[in-house]
Amino acid sequence: MAELLSAEEIIELKGQIAAVHEPRELIIEVLQAVQKSHGWVPDAGVKLAAELLGLSPLQVDEVATFYDKIYRSPVGRKVIHVCDSICCWTRGTELVYRHLQQVLGIVPGETTSDGCFTLLPTCCLGACDKSPAMRIGDRLYGELTVERVNTILADERQETEA
User: Which of 3, 5, 49, 7 is nearest to 26 (CA)?
Assistant: First the structure.
């Protein structure tokens, strides 16, 4: 299991865990560390997180499966989260979402055949003032149109290939 995180990462996480009153506070941070290192959180990652936090794997998995930014199965190199909140839907997310599915050749939850993109819905990105919005990795894109989506995808794909 240790191969999911380096010895240095484990030491750093143990330090963070020792500094908090309740280790449960750091479930997401520990899972994010596993995901950053491994690309997603396999069962062994849940077990490792549970051991580090002094919790049961079930307690950790309950959080992992609830939080939609923790991936419990393999994803593409870039994950596209499309906001499906009411603000985004009233301002055109449905058109953007359909376009993404058509251009990428996948439906929500799938990954492109080249492993580049995974398309996922998300309940809110906190960008109502920029709706419709999507996030790719750590980048938030708002005021989306079909044309803007095409440009963003081309830029993101080029960055991945570079």
Answer: 49
